[in-house]
């Protein structure tokens, strides 16, 4: 379970260009659910997602994973926690352009004490599931936006993480691919994974267990 | 990422080669012997860099030749140094050649 | 943990080919700079070492005559006075100077043949023999390889040397110095003191200087001190000569300093391009890797290995090339600039000395800046929130 307590994030605090991205957000996310953060652009969805994913430190507040506060933990601990439990799908995809799709997918495994080659079957399975298996050995720059998005999904799932954080995962993909992604997210939920998605996609909102609407950094509505 | 990167292998090979060069070169210098009979008959011979380099015609360098004590070989040592710099500019030079002082000091 | 380090190593190596342009820039810059600097440094140190060895071949003391602060011919009578000084074993009078053949300058040395010790073997003579007391005033000479090659003469041939007063002097070659001793003897013409006096037209009763050898139990400096009563003499010991020569070949030599500066500027430029150009791309990558669970130490390890491989590859290759260029190719193009040699005999090789200190100092000015400019920004990015690092890189 993820619990956020009075999370606030202020960029450039005390400077003329101070921005309050997230303000006083408290939220509980049960395991095995699809949780959607929605709201207008710039409302703080991505920032909140990053804070939950421990890749951005909030200005104030507390985060608890399974009841344990984590913000005070060392950088090393947080890094390890991310390595073992998290998968990320970024809004800007963030694949390394000089690598092939498959190399990008195996990249997160390089930080683990394991042979990335052992995960080849899983990579192939996921790539097939998302319909990009024939692009496995293509360089990222040779892939379309939708294909890149699907490869980014496979990269996020290669370690079979407990938590998946996805920022606008269907923004670059066509309807067919979107449907594949919805089905994938539902499968993951059925396997007990927790998925937190930031999106405007109404179809994706439909499959969510919880929807939190944000506006100007605050949670304004929960369904 | 399965491509074999030659550079690390080459880095190790080249660094090892350099260490071997260094070691063998130093060993060869260590066992270098001077020629006793030359020392006892001729004294210091020149290091054989036969030259007629224009720079040595410089009167300033003639003085420098003398500063190198005017011994056989001194002339040749001056030739390379003449090109490098005007030695008189170098303060350290005065300090490193005892008995040769081109500056005037108050007594 | 072994598998993880293997993964990180593999990733580091892969970065080298991924940042192809940066790799090429660093390799080329370091290669040019280290090749030039190492060729000069190895040669410079070789010459210094050679000087050290040649000074060992100098007499214990060299006694010269000073008049108005300038070296002049010394009266031969001084030999008796010097010989009487306690601790002096022998005094060898010498007449020596320089002579020109074609456009080259050679060292002519006239020896008192009667005082030449009789050696059973004279190792530095390749063919013929060294001078004996019977050669006094007979025009017999022993010559170095350079002259022999230049004039195409061998033992038994005659050569004609022009003196300063443009007089033709005929000499008979009785011996040839060996290749092994050529660094000392290549440009040398050894003759009897009588012949040298005639050749240089020096007045009777005077010589150029005295080579003084002291008893084994005596310190040359102590014996020199005992000679201070003599007026107008300058006494040189081996240490003074060495210091003089080292001053001539000092590290302050303009060319060397220039090349050293080029290397430093090159390293600084590469470091700058690293920090500015690649730093941007690398910032994003570090953020991404941190997100995946690469720890700060993992990222430092990746960058450290990458820089070490790159630095050692380029610098070692540069130094090996520098060595080959100086030791085997005789530094074509550089040798004239470096040493001002007008002529280099084919058999003569540049003395090249590859010391640990030169090797490590070159590594220090190439590998260290590279390490600092790669590892420090990577570390700074790694301790930043990954999201911020990626956002800054994208900005």
Automatic annotation (TrEMBL), chain C:
<feature type="domain" description="MacB-like periplasmic core">
    <location>
        <begin position="23"/>
        <end position="227"/>
    </location>
</feature>
<protein>
    <recommendedName>
        <fullName>ABC3 transporter permease protein domain-containing protein</fullName>
    </recommendedName>
</protein>
<keyword id="KW-1003">Cell membrane</keyword>
<dbReference type="GO" id="GO:0044874">
    <property type="term" value="P:lipoprotein localization to outer membrane"/>
</dbReference>
<feature type="transmembrane region" description="Helical">
    <location>
        <begin position="21"/>
        <end position="42"/>
    </location>
</feature>
<dbReference type="GO" id="GO:0098797">
    <property type="term" value="C:plasma membrane protein complex"/>
</dbReference>
<feature type="domain" description="ABC3 transporter permease C-terminal">
    <location>
        <begin position="261"/>
        <end position="379"/>
    </location>
</feature>
<dbReference type="Pfam" id="PF02687">
    <property type="entry name" value="FtsX"/>
</dbReference>
<dbReference type="InterPro" id="IPR051447">
    <property type="entry name" value="Lipoprotein-release_system"/>
</dbReference>
<feature type="transmembrane region" description="Helical">
    <location>
        <begin position="255"/>
        <end position="279"/>
    </location>
</feature>
<keyword id="KW-0472">Membrane</keyword>
<dbReference type="InterPro" id="IPR003838">
    <property type="entry name" value="ABC3_permease_C"/>
</dbReference>
<keyword id="KW-1133">Transmembrane helix</keyword>
<dbReference type="InterPro" id="IPR025857">
    <property type="entry name" value="MacB_PCD"/>
</dbReference>
<dbReference type="Pfam" id="PF12704">
    <property type="entry name" value="MacB_PCD"/>
</dbReference>
<feature type="transmembrane region" description="Helical">
    <location>
        <begin position="300"/>
        <end position="319"/>
    </location>
</feature>
<keyword id="KW-0812">Transmembrane</keyword>
<feature type="transmembrane region" description="Helical">
    <location>
        <begin position="356"/>
        <end position="380"/>
    </location>
</feature>
């Amino acid at each position: 379970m993820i619990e956020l307590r009075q999370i606030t994030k202020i960029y450039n605090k005390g400077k003329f260009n101070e921005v309050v991205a997230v303000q006083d957000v408290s939220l509980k996310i049960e395991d095995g659910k699809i949780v959607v953060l929605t709201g207008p652009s710039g409302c703080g969805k991505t920032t909140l997602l990053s804070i939950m994913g421990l890749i951005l430190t909030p200005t104030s507040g507390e985060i608890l994973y399974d009841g344990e506060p984590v913000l005070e933990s060392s950088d090393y601990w947080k890094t390890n926690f991310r390595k073992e439990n998290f998968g990320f799908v970024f809004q800007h995809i963030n694949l390394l352009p000089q690598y092939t799709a498959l190399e990008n997918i195996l990249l997160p495994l390089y930080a683990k004490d394991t042979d990335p080659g052992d995960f080849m079957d899983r990579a192939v399975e996921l790539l097939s599931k998302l319909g990009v298996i024939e692009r496995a050995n293509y360089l990222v720059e040779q892939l379309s936006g939708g294909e890149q998005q699907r490869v980014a999904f496979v990269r996020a799932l290669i370690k079979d993480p407990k938590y998946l954080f996805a920022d606008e995962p269907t923004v670059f993909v066509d309807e067919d691919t979107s449907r594949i992604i919805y089905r994938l997210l539902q499968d993951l939920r059925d396997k007990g994974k927790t998925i937190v998605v930031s999106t405007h996609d109404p179809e994706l909102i439909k499959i969510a267990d919880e929807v939190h609407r944000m506006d100007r950094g605050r949670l304004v509505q929960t369904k | 990422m399965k491509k074999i990167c030659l550079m690390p292998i080459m880095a190790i090979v080249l660094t090892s080669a350099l260490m071997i060069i260094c070691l063998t070169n130093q060993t060869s210098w260590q066992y270098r012997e001077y020629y006793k009979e030359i020392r006892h008959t001729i004294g210091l011979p020149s290091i054989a860099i036969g030259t007629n380099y224009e720079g040595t015609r410089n009167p300033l360098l003639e003085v420098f030749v003398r500063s190198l004590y005017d011994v056989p070989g001194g002339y040749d040592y001056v030739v390379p140094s003449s090109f490098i710099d005007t030695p008189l500019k170098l303060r350290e030079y005065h300090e490193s050649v005892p008995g040769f002082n081109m500056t005037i000091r108050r007594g | 943990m072994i598998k993880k380090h293997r993964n990180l190593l593999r990733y580091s190596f892969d970065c080298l080919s991924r940042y192809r342009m940066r790799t090429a820039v660093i390799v080329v810059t370091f290669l040019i700079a280290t090749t030039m600097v190492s060729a000069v440094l190895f040669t410079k140190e070789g010459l210094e070492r050679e000087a050290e060895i040649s000074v060992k071949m100098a007499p214990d003391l060299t006694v010269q005559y000073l008049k108005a602060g300038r070296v002049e011919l010394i009266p031969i009578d001084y030999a008796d006075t010097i010989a009487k000084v306690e601790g002096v074993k022998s005094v060898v009078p010498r007449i020596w100077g320089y002579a020109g053949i074609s456009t080259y300058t050679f060292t002519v040395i006239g020896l008192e043949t009667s005082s030449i010790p009789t050696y059973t073997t004279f190792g530095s003579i390749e063919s013929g023999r060294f001078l004996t007391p019977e050669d006094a005033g007979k025009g017999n000479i022993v010559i170095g390889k350079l002259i022999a090659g230049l004039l195409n003469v061998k033992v038994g041939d005659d050569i004609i040397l022009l003196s300063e007063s443009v007089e033709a002097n005929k000499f008979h070659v009785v011996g040839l110095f060996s290749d092994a001793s050529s660094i000392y003897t290549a440009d040398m013409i050894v003759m009897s003191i009588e012949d040298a006096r005639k050749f240089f037209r020096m007045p009777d009763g005077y010589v150029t200087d005295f080579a003084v050898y002291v008893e084994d139990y005596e310190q040359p400096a102590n014996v020199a001190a005992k000679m201070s009563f003599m007026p107008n003499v300058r006494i040189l010991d081996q240490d003074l000569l060495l210091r003089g020569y080292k001053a001539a070949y000092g590290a302050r030599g303009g060319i060397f300093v220039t090349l050293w500066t080029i290397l430093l500027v090159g390293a600084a430029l590469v470091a700058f391009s690293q920090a500015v150009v690649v730093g941007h791309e690398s910032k994003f990558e570090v953020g991404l890797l941190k997100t995946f669970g690469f720890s700060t130490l993992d990222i430092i390890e990746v960058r450290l290995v990458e820089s070490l491989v790159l630095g050692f590859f380029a610098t070692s290759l540069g130094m090996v090339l520098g060595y080959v260029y100086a030791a085997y190719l005789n530094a074509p193009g550089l040798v004239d600039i470096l040493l001002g040699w007008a002529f280099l005999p084919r058999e003569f090789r540049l003395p090249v000395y590859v010391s640990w200190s030169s090797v490590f100092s070159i590594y220090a000015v190439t590998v260290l800046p590279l390490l600092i400019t790669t590892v420090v920004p990577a570390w700074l990015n790694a301790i930043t929130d990954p999201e911020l690092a990626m956002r800054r890189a994208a900005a």
